[in-house]
Amino acid sequence: MTLTTVDLRTEAIAEVERLKRSRALLRDADQSHLAQLEAVGTWITRSRKARLRRRLSGRVCLVWRVVFEEPSGRVVESLLVPMLLELQGGANPRSSDWIKLFIRRAGEVLRPRVDVECDAWRTRVTRLVSVNSSLRANRQRAIARRADRGRRDSQPGLLDRRAERERQASVFAAAENERAAVARLQAILETAEVALRPAQLLLVLLP
Amino acid sequence: MVVRRGRWRIVHVRRHDDCQVITMRSLAAPHVGVERRFLAPFERIEPIARPSHPKQVRLSAWRRALRALIAADVPPGSLRAARSSRIELLPHQLEPAMAILRGLGTRMLIADEVGLGKTIQAGLIASELLERGTIERVLVLTPPGLRDQWIRELADRFAIAATGADGPALRRLAAALPVGVNPWHTLTVAVASIDYVKRPEVLPAVLSRHWDLVIIDEAHTCAGESDRHAAAHGLAASAAFVILLSATPHNGDRESFETLCATGDVDGTPLLVFRRTRAEVRVGAARRVHIVRVKASRDEMRMHALLGRYRDALHAEGADTLALSVLHKRALSSAWSLAVSVERRLATLADEGRTIGAQMMLPLGDPQGELIAADETPPWPAELRLTDTDLERRLLSALRQGARSAAVSETKVHALANLVRRSRQPAVVFTEYRDTLQHVRQALDRPALVLHGGLTRDERSAVLAAFGRDPCGLLLTTDAAAEGLNLHHHCRLVVNLELPWNPMRIEQRIGRVDRIGQRRTVHAFHLVAAGTGEIRLLAHLRARVARAKADLGAPDPLDDERRIARLVMDPKAQG
Asked: I need a labelling partner for B567 at 20 to 30 A (CA). Which of A19, B368, B408, B467 fits?
């Protein structure tokens, strides 16, 4: 019998603070906006209030999102990368042609910067996914080995049809369990195959 | 993804041999957030083609979307479901879920002290794993009396719709399914009584279902070599995650503790243990403990003296001390309960010598596995018998007479009535035995609710609901029936009719009202019979608890029953 303990007190205190901030920002009404944003793509808006303009002081605010996806397309982890961009002279944020060009150029020029920004996060996610899936896979393999050990082959008596039917049912059930165990292991191993998708520009705030 | 011209986000994918069941959440108004399942490859599922040009929106909509994005942003290894769950955020309650998400273990024992929210911690783990699609099927094994409480907590706090799996519910389910379909296979989150699941006619059906997460509440009840342990281990050993919950995992028996820790172990990996005390966590209300010394009446002293005479006669024949302790426990609980035990023994003695063939009892007692037998009248220990049957009969007849006389007017019952009358607020009164409970109810001069192991699920619910409604309610309960109940929202007063011999049980009793969420000072009253072994027991328990408190790293203040038995029975013994 081996027991182990871990001390996550410091992390838990930080987590409580993070969750409190998150709860303070959580509004049911906002969820539909988020869903629309995820469905449509980049949202762009202008700062119309003087205070916000002063704060931006001629810069563009961009919010990128980077996600790790499973092969099925399910998002495993995501990260927001905010960015403030100084506009050069000659920029015309009021022109729709300029905005289109800006978005296209931002994708080409700034995406590598976003990748650099999320480097530490990427390493952490990869390590966490690998640790979790190997832990679960090891347990799943041990469960399968235990099921194998527990199986007993018996020989029914001659002309004992009832015992023969029971044996056949147990062989069938064992085969089913084995197949299910293999499928479970396969599913666990697939969760480790997460892929980083290209950073997606979600929000743009123009001065 | 685009499915049927709607836009969806993938939540979960379940693979089968030739198809996949894909759970998706709608992104399109007016059904934003609605979940649906699609069957691939029969359904056409395509990635969303994002437009190359951005969409101009109003600043308010932009700001709302940003706020939702930030609120949903979760660092790796942090909690997602906790954000929307209805729990007070306490660091110690988040630690186990964080440990699971960070891959620190798949089997865990949460052994926090009573009242620190073990149910919430287990619920949070289930909720996080379900949210991430790591698990699909959850089985919660509880004592029968806690099943409804679990279902309520999962629904109210984590929005998890759990099904109570008992005989009637499964029969109803089976009636609606095609012949031969195992109803357990249709349940995704099931809460079942361990006593129901362990039955030989039920267990194979439960075992045939693969459970991703098995939670065993009050796991100490599944320790040791027993049917409960075999069932719990069998189910846990094929689950991806196992959570054991117990405030008292160690009852002093190392082997029993080892079997508990081995529950669900298949690969020898260490069991992850969380054990936090109230002092460490620094939560909960203030607590005041009052010792009420009740002067025993002449009849009660006579009863104790007669019990002493019987004990001396047994000692003279070298009887086992631990076996004798059962009678002392009964005498300290109530004179009535001792009288019941002695009467049964006398009836057995009267039957001895008769040649009546024994018949097996029909199994009609508890078809739903809802009842708890731990508070029933204990059987007479086989070791307690004198070789001279006539002498034993004489001694026991005198003891029965003495106990009956004492039971007419018990001083502890008077003290209890006085205490409750003066407190004018809801109170919970604990005793170990069901017969004491019934006797106290009859002897009291006011109505009282009783909760014991012999009540069905509906009867228990009715009693607890009635107690919750009554601003001056009195609830008489046994340890076994009240295990794990949350009574702190309504009550802060606990009365112990007799002292339990295990100090952890005192904590279990007071813990029903002294829990996270209790806002008022908790008062615990111990009624102690002056001039009896209970005074020595009290001194001993105090010393043990003080020692454990002084040494936070020390194991639980568990007592050896034999040692306590000697203390109670022998006036010269030292704590």
From this structure: B408
